[in-house]
Write a structure and sequence with these properties.
single chain, alpha+beta
Amino acid sequence: METDAINAAVVMQRLPLASRWQSWQWKPVEVDVPTLLPAAPPRCLRNDESDARWLFTGFEVRLYTDEAEGYFLNVDSPAPCWFVMWRLEDIDGEEVAVPKALTLSYNEAARLMDGGERVDTVPAPAEVIEQLRAFALEHYRPEPKKKRRKPSFEGGAGVEQMARAEGGSHGS
């Protein structure tokens, strides 16, 4: 099962760094929902030496029941957020951070990072958090804890029997 799409737009920001290894830092600074902006090519909102901002529209985020645990982990955290996966690309001869995926699932974000992708967070607004919380509560069922069997190194009748069987074979 999935929900209706949440339409969103992402604003990426470039700031200068005082570093000899990297001149700029890119990061997502805003996820706008609900947006009435149609999907469109990236648009530069500002571009000067102190700050550059690009707008990316057309993101549709749906909630899926098989990601309910990831949504629960997000809303259960101290700061529920959007996870924005982005890559550097060339746009009109300029290197720009382009968001490629937008999710609310902690687990999906972790899988993306495990795959080597860049993922940053942006705080989610209260209305999105409430929708996410309601979905997680309806669809997430924690796995019941299983009774743990004692491993053989903790002793027990099986270990004693094994020791007796091996009794004369060591050190002879």
